[in-house]
């Protein structure tokens, strides 16, 4: 299983932001514990008087989610894992943030995150694809529900970020399981790309910053494709 996120790395990143003239604080929060989420966001509002943005990038270990396993072999627990962990956490974070935004009079943004699996036709990904589709539906509901408070809700739907550890681990495991070279398996992630290169983490951050700005307001309630274009994505 992939190692958990490190608070030490988050603290170091926050220190670097501060040293460059920015403002940042690192906190460790269980994104499936609503009480912990509430407590964290209450600290943010207490320190700043408002809450402008919430972004939840939670994922799950692909084997726990049954990714790569045929639907006839995946367990019900594997199918439900991404629905409970990924979509469930997006729900908990978003509604906790909305409560704080309403109470503090903050016309903020709920920025959800999922993968383009919701609109592709990829076998052996039943639970993960279902969770991605659920997050898209959740985004539209939240936008309709909280818009009267000036709160926006939108979702970045990302293609595979090839530079990330999670994707590289999956390529390694899947290639070993299939008995094919790693390079050949990696092509499965890029063979439908329209452009020669795919999205990067830096571009993801810049896109998120645009969406939560005033210029991103027209995208309220929308699912924003972040994949540089793929032939197999609706």
Using brief descriptors, characterize the structure shown:
four-stranded parallel beta sheet, 47% helix, 4 strands, Rossmann fold, 234 residues, globular, alpha/beta
Low-confidence stretches: none
Order of helices and strands: HHEHEHEHHHE
**What strand order characterises the main sheet?**
1-2-3-4
Largest sheet report: 4 strands, parallel
Provide the number of structural domains: 1
What separation lies between the terminal Cα atoms? 32 Å
- Tell me the number of strands: 4
Annotated CATH architecture: 3-Layer(aba) Sandwich
Helical content (DSSP H or I, runs of 4+): 40-55%
Q: Per CATH, what is the topology? A: Rossmann fold
Cα-atom radius of gyration: 18 Å
């Amino acid at each position: 299983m992939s190692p958990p996120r490190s608070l030490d790395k988050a603290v170091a990143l926050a220190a670097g932001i501060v040293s460059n003239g920015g403002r940042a604080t690192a906190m460790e929060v269980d994104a499936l514990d609503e009480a912990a989420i509430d407590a964290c966001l209450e600290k943010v509002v207490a320190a700043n008087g408002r809450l402008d943005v919430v972004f939840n990038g939670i994922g799950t270990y692909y084997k726990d989610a049954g990714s790569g396993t045929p639907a006839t072999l995946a367990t019900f627990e594997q199918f439900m894992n991404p629905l409970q962990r990924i979509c469930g956490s997006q729900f908990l974070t978003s509604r906790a943030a909305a409560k704080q935004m309403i109470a503090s009079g903050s016309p903020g943004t709920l920025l959800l995150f999922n993968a383009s699996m919701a609109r592709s036709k990829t076998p052996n990904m039943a639970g993960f694809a279902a969770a991605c589709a659920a997050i898209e539906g959740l985004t539209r509901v939240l936008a309709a529900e909280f818009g009267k408070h000036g709160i926006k809700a939108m979702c970045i739907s990302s293609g595979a970020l090839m530079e990330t550890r999670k994707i590289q681990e999956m390529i390694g495991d899947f290639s070993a399981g299939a008995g094919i070279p790693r390079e050949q398996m990696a092509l499965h992630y890029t063979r439908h790309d329209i452009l020669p290169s795919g999205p990067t983490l830096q571009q993801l951050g810049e896109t998120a910053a645009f969406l939560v700005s005033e210029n991103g307001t027209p995208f309220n309630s929308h699912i924003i494709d972040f994949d540089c274009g793929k032939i197999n994505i609706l």
